[in-house]
Amino acid sequence: MAAEILNPRTDGSESGDSAGSEGPESPVDPAFALHRGGKMEVAATVPLRNADDLSLAYTPGVARVCTAIAEKPELVYDYTWKSQVVAVVTDGTAVLGLGDIGPEASLPVMEGKAILFKQFGGVDAVPIALATTDVDEIVETVVRLAPSFGGVNLEDISAPRCFEIERKLQERLDIPVFHDDQHGTAVVTLAALRNAVRLTGRTLGELRAVISGAGAAGVAIAKILVEAGIGDVAVTDRKGVVHAGRDDLNSAKRELASYTNRTGLTGSLEEALQGADVFIGVSGGTVREEAVAGMAKGCFIFAMANPTPEIHPDVAHRYAAVVATGRSDYPNQINNVLAFPGIFSGAFQVRASRITEGMKIAAAEALAAVVDGDLSADRVIPSPFDERVAPAVAAAVAAAARAEGVARR
Predict the structure, then answer these.
(1) 3-state SS, residue 369
(2) Hey, which residues are catalytic here?
(3) Whole-angstrom Cα distance, residue 87 to residue 124?
(4) Above 50 in pLDDT, residue 321?
């Protein structure tokens, strides 16, 4: 018998559901109940009470606004929602930990992303799931949709295609294009690491880090750590350390090898961990405790795979001064929602044409500063529900955009 899944928008009565739409056969699951009918809707921000209201919101009043925008295109930011709306774009090829599940199955995640934008950053967002995985088709589609949006958030697109898609869109559009799986993860990781070194009286320049995973998140984390001045960072994939001597690297990994691993490490992840100060996991799998024990005294372990961290927190705490995961049921959750709402909010405030590396580093510094006097081994990163987070990140990003010359107001 199919489980009864109630629509949270109704009193629980049937409301025209088609046969067989009750959901999977399972015990009542609150996740299905929450998602019935979707998690978002379009709402008017102006009244439509009478003919006068209608004549202003639509014809004939709207024609005057259209004419003004046609004569002065930048007015679109003042008289439409473009100045505060993001397109959340995916092809469904790298959805959470589920992988390539397709555009339709990705929609619940994209809706979730959209409501996070609104809840935590005051930014409107529209989910757009595309029925293509071709790089050029995705780029062309987004370029054609771009006049309706103030920014583009690429989401859950598999590597290495995600790098090329982001680069091509940034070249062709004059609005922020941001791949959150890369840069949101990188910003929050850098913020947590800044507070970890502050807590232990060290500097980033003293650290040697090892990243497990050379996909979207691993590449972006490596890049931002190098930009921020880390002593050295090596990135590993399934075949071991990414280094220039390997003949099996794709273009993204060849570029990665050009600015990481200054000490010239080769071999496996576990070999690279010997004497390392930092472990950052964005790949899944399990790291043996013997390898963890070989890390430097007072090391930092950020094991961020979900739902199973690469190093279990109980094991990590035996050796590390600071432990972080991607899970909400342990302290120090590395959660992208700490970054992307504030980053887009700040970019929109100044109508930035793009999001620069300097803006990302500014976001990380602002995020780290929110912890301030509450800094401890179990609190190197604030909670997503800390109301100071998004305003602090937005202000820092806006200031950095002005400083770097990408602000238009």
Answers:
(1) helix
(2) 58, 113
(3) 9
(4) yes
